[in-house]
Structures are given as C-alpha cells and as structure tokens.
Amino acid sequence: MIEASINALPGLVSLFVVATVLLGLPAALIAGAKKKPIALSLLFAATLAGILTVTMTPGSRGVGQVRVCDAGLPFDAFLTSESAQLNFLLFVPMSVTATLLFRRPVSVAAGSVALAFSIELAQAWIAEGRACTYDDITANAIGGVGGVLCATVYLWVKKRQAPFTLRDTLWGTGVAAVAGAALTAAFHFSITTVDGDARQNQAQQKFRDTDQQDQWMNRTVAKIFGRQAEVTETGIQELGHGRWRLTASTTRGEISALWPERKLESVWSKNNKDDGGNLTDAEMKTAAEHFAKEWFPDEVAGSKAKFRAVVEQHGAHLLNYRRYVHGVMMPMRLDIIVTTSGRIMGVTAQTTTDPSLPKVTVTKKEAERLAEKASERTDANPVSLLARRVSGSWRPLWMIGLKTHGSEENTETVFLDAVTGKRVQPQKPEAPMPGQPGKSGLR
After folding, report:
1. What is the pLDDT of residues 110-151, one digit of tens each?
2. Which of 114, 133, 184, 202 has the highest CB neighbour number within 10 Å of its CB?
3. Which residues contact residue 153 at a Cβ distance below 8 angstroms, ignoring those fewer than 6 apart?
4. How far apart are CA 209 and CA 202, in angstroms?
5. pTM reported for the whole predicted model
6. Where is the VanZ-like domain positioned along the sequence (predicted)?
7. CATH code at 356-443
C-alpha cells in the first residue's frame, strides 16, 4: 500500500506537508496548554499525518469495488510480503510517539488497532483507487501494537516501573470493546469479503483451460474433418460441477464435445450425402469400428454392436453400440454413420457411466398387464428394459408401446418402474439425439 501510493501519487509529499501543518498547529497549542512536550506533539501529528496521507489519498487506478474487502494472503505468504512489512512499519512511529506523549500504552494500542480497521473500512466504502484488504489491517495493527511495546519497554527501563495505570487499563479496554463492536458490525453488515488470491488463481486457471480447450478442439477438427477444415465459430456452455460443452463450427461440419472428459458428443458433416464409394458393407463397418475404438474405447468395451443401412441416406450405414447389464440397456449410446468411402458422416454419443441399479423384479409379462391396466388400453408391447433417470435417480424401466385394439395409429408409450411396477415419467436424455447436434453460446 505504501509503495503503491508513493509511486502512484506524485503530489503525496505536498499533501503530507499540508496534513502535518493542519494537525500540528492544534497539537502544539493543546500541548502548550496542558504542559506537554511540544516537540513530541508535533512529531506525533506528523506521524499521524503520514498515515492518513498514505492511506486515504485517492489512488490513480479509478473506482474500484465498493464495499468489498480482500481476505488477503495465506499466513506464510503474508510474513514474507514486502507490502505487509511496509504497512507494519507505517504504524510503528505513530504508536511510539503517542505512547511517549500520553503515557497510556493500553489506550494507544486499542486506538491504533481501531484506526487500522477504520482506515480499511473507509477505503472499502470510498473505493476511489484504494483497495481494502485484511492484510493491511493485520500489518497496521501489529505495527501499532509493536510500537506501543517498544515505547513501553523504553519507559519501563527509564522510569524503573511499569507505565500501566488502572485508569489507562479501563479506558483502553473500554475503547477496545466499543470500537471492536462498532467496527465488527460495520464490516459484517456493509462489507463483502472476497478471496482475491483465489479469484486470481481461478482466472489464471480459466485462461489455461481455455487455451487447452482451443488446442484440443483444433486438433480434433483437423483429425476428423482434415487439415483443410477451418474453424469459423466456437462455443462453450457450462453444464455445472466443473463440466463444459464445447462446440466448433467449421467449413466442413460441426463438432460438440464434453470437457474436461475430452469426449466427443456429436459430429456432423456438412456433406450429408453418400460419397458413391465402392467399399463393401464389411469394409464400411471396419472403418466405423476403427473410429469408435479410437474415440470411444470405454463405450465400445462390453457393448453390443449393430450395423445396418440408413434408409434416409442411400449407401450410408449406421453402426450403433449399446451395453446391457443383467438385461437392462445402459444409458450409454453411440451411433456412427459411415459412407461407402469410409468417411464418418455423423456421430452422436451419450458417454454416461453405467449406473448402479436395483434388481429387476417386474417381469415382461407382468409389465404388459400393469401397463394395460394403468392406461386402459390393449395390445401392450414392451419395447425394451432400459436404465433412465427418474426424479434424479437411475432406475430400470420397462418402455412399453400401447395401442387401441385394431388401431395402428392411436398408440401411446408408457414407462413402468421395473422394481415397483409403478408408472413413471423419466427425464429426457442429456445427449443430443441422432441428427440433432447440440448448440451452445458463442465464445
């Protein structure tokens, strides 16, 4: 604070002289009237003027955060901080001269600590280029008490008796109690404490993460779409709990991925037509499997794969992976569309870890009966037994299609808890569905 103030304020010396004169004249007059040492009074006024000039003169950094005080450095860093050492020395001369002048060490110590808190409180309220920090309060308060101890030792040695009196002790204790209560209330109700060091570290970490995200996404774009693909737009969406969705639009397609997992979520090529290649079905499947094993090794392991033609895109084929545990289809989804030239046209993935589920107790036949009873429809047809979230928890569910007898159009899909048999409404899947790449805010 001292060093910054001196460097930032060229007129500080002039302000110090003016403050010394304004405080020194009444101090000298009072000292003369009470037969106190005038020279010591002027010295006390000068040291107090120095503190007020350095701490209360508006800085040159503009308006800062109003009513905010920084929690400061860790203790080990505080001890080695040059700023803390300078702030400690700032209060020593004032408390030494005040103790020698008034001969009330307890009152001076209480007043020094109260002054340290008051200055930082004022800085927080004004915030004109000043910054409130608990480091300054600590250093100033220690300096004030340290100066009192030095002067007390000097008086003790000189007079051969302790300079403490009952009156001073009572006054000092009273000042400490009243000022402490008032300042504590003022800080509690009007000041917001922030961890500036932690915020700086978080900001630095965010910049590092952003750089890593961009580098990873650029490498991913080049690997999937080729080095000729140019990134035209990027985006980032916060998902909570330190997770993000990254997106990139390129001249050849779009990519969505999860961070920090570095997992692809979707890939969509702008060229959504088959290439007219001459690969066989087996060769196309091999190309899609190679892509899956490279980008989704955990999802491929233990999963069942199906390969079929895509009706909407003539020639293109779809390779999908699903994993089953005790007959229940897990939430993991992986769908890859490959062309007859081996080009990956589209990918959608839900890379959810297999959840732990309770044991299924409702059979397929029982689920059909319960579904028909619950909906008053006929021809129940369980589509599959799958894991889905219900009210935030993973449950095994029977997904059942129902239709009115003799009608193919009037259908309904219901979900039954495979443990309780009750009808439930599952949450929608988090990952984008095939053919619907996710979007996010621009970055």
Report:
1. 999 999 999 999 988 886 667 788 889 999 999 999 999 999
2. 133
3. none
4. 10
5. 0.53
6. 86-153
7. 3.10.450
